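Narrative of accomplishments. A recurring question from our advisory board has been how the design workflow behaves on a single, concrete structure rather than in aggregate. To address it, we present the structure tokens for one chain from the evaluation set, followed by the sequence designed for it. No filtering or post-editing was applied between the two.
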């Protein structure tokens, strides 16, 4: 099976959702709840309802909040996404309710750092799948698919509103620490979303473009494209090289370019994601 096709296999997606849900649940139940904090998203809303009502459990509240949102996943995304998300919501509900241990982090600053990192890692792993853990994840994916809104950015905005409604229920210090946790979570999610996908876009301006591209294709097995350019001062026509590489190949490209043309210009830019042959396969939920 090709590596790009593994991401669409059922066992792989169930593995990612299960692993991510377990990690996320540990962050919630072993760090966040024992310290009286909340998280963002529907899990945070479930915890807040639990604090406020002192009835049911955070996991059950989370599952109740999921019911209408899972229907949205069916309507706006796909049946497959719905089934994966329903599985993720059930697993996360069970993990939250059945984890019995606490991670002894009593300093709220450290708890915010550790909780945010663990929850972000769990959520990021889930987002690498074709499903979600339900809740706010479904809305995030809908907005990302339909409007291109970054998942971490939306989550932080949603959480900010949620925390405003927490005033009066939680101590102000706990709310501020919870907001810090949410920010850390959003950054870790973004990191996991770009993990293994981020590439470098490289522009090369040289008087020996054909020789450079031949070496890049031969030594690095990377393709290249000529963009037609014109020198603003000289007025000479130029072939500008465009190529995509990973971070480990940048130095090798530099060596190739400047060994051939010491006067060349090399411009490197970060890319969020690269889709296509030889790179990542487009994810279809």
């Amino acid at each position: 099976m090709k590596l790009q096709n593994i991401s669409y296999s059922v066992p792989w997606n169930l593995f990612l959702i299960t692993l991510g849900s377990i990690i996320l649940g540990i962050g919630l139940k072993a760090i966040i709840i024992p310290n009286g904090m909340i998280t963002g998203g529907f899990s945070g809303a479930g915890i807040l309802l639990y604090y406020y009502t002192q009835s049911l459990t955070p996991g059950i509240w989370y599952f109740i909040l999921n019911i209408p949102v899972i229907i949205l996943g069916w309507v706006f995304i796909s049946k497959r996404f719905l089934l994966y998300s329903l599985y993720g919501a059930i697993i996360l509900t069970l993990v939250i309710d059945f984890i019995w241990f606490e991670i002894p982090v009593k300093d709220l600053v450290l708890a915010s750092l550790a909780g945010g990192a663990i929850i972000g890692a769990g959520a990021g792993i889930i987002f690498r799948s074709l499903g979600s853990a339900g809740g706010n994840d479904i809305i995030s994916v809908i907005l990302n698919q339909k409007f291109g809104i970054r998942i971490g950015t939306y989550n932080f905005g949603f959480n900010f509103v949620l925390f405003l409604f927490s005033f009066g229920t939680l101590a102000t210090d706990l709310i501020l620490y919870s907001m810090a946790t949410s920010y850390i979570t959003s950054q870790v999610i973004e990191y996991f979303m770009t993990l293994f996908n981020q590439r470098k876009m490289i522009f090369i301006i040289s008087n020996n473009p054909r020789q450079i591209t031949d070496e890049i294709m031969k030594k690095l097995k990377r393709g290249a494209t000529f963009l037609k350019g014109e020198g603003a001062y000289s007025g000479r026509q130029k072939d500008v090289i465009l190529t995509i590489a990973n971070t480990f190949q940048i130095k090798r490209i530099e060596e190739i370019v400047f060994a051939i043309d010491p006067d060349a210009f090399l411009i490197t830019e970060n890319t969020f994601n690269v889709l296509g042959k030889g790179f990542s396969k487009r994810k279809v939920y």
